[in-house]
Design a protein that fits this description.
alpha/beta, 10 helices, eight-stranded mixed β-sheet
């Protein structure tokens, strides 16, 4: 390390800064992990799932070490963020945070690059990352880890009242730590918007993006046969070199393979987007 690099790190050290962004009827609270230095940083947004017990902060810190500025936050109605949690609000929150980090004030304060962001989501956060990226021309890349294909539940729920009740009770079990409507309301959102929220319908909108799909081989929540393999198949049929994919042994949270998960995701981000923030 040169003396100039030592000066750069001392002048702008790595840091963790609280984040607060207005969103709809409430706010989202989160944090910014800055790698420090004087050079500009690509921005990574990390999205947790539903309800989001696994926050993937080990991955956030690894990305920061590689020179990315990382933003992580809790959706409205989740983990202390005021407001109401719904799936549509979840997508809106991601859009509002993107708008905030694209502001001139944010870019000037945190030395961020004007190049497109990278969205990385786990479980339902993987679903949100893909849906938002498909509708946002400025996002450059997206990684879904053990992604949950929420839109696919619409067809399952329409098949019978029993299926509908199964989905509703599954939602109810997750709402204990969230502030939101009755799970029946969430079910109606899924049925109403199932087609546009089905990840297998998105490849055409993602053709110019860098995409990384990761499945958990022993996933007990987002079953690979329902949530990973059909999505991967639809993407492989329509996308070329922009698609990467991997299957990692372990449960939904990659509990026994966190080092491999962090290595693969951070390595993909560095290879595709470059670790341009000074170390």
């Amino acid at each position: 390390m040169t003396n100039n690099n030592r000066m750069e790190i001392r002048e702008r050290p790595p840091s963790l800064i609280p984040l607060e962004v207005e969103s709809g009827d409430g706010k989202v609270f989160g944090m910014i992990l800055s790698p420090g230095g004087k050079r500009t940083h690509r921005v990574v947004l990390i999205l947790h799932g539903f309800p989001g017990h696994e926050k993937n902060m080990d991955l956030a810190h690894e990305l920061k070490r590689r020179g990315f500025l990382v933003v992580a936050f809790n959706y409205r109605g989740a983990w202390g963020s005021p407001g109401i949690f719904t799936f549509s609000n979840m997508l809106e929150d991601v859009g509002n945070v993107l708008g905030h980090i694209r502001s001139d004030g944010f870019r000037e304060e945190f030395h961020t690059s004007p190049e497109g962001e990278i969205l990385i989501g786990h479980s339902m956060g993987g679903w949100a990352a893909l849906v938002v990226t498909a509708g946002d021309t400025s996002v450059d890349g997206v990684c879904s880890m053990a992604g949950y294909n929420l839109g696919s539940l619409a067809g399952f729920a329409r098949e019978s009242e029993l299926n509908r009740r199964i989905v509703i009770e599954g939602f109810r079990n997750q709402m204990t730590v969230l502030r939101g409507p009755e799970p029946e309301i969430l079910m109606e959102q899924v049925i109403e918007r199932g087609e546009e929220w089905d990840l297998t319908s998105l490849p055409k909108k993602l053709r110019k993006k860098e995409i990384f799909l990761i499945g958990a081989e022993d996933d007990e929540t987002a079953f690979p046969e329902l949530h990973y393999k059909p999505v991967l198949s639809s993407f492989k049929d329509r996308l070329g070199d922009g698609l990467c994919y991997s299957s990692i042994p372990g449960d939904h949270n990659f509990s026994g393979n966190r080092l491999r998960l962090c290595s693969e995701v951070s390595g993909w981000a560095s290879d595709r987007f470059g670790d341009i923030g000074g170390k």
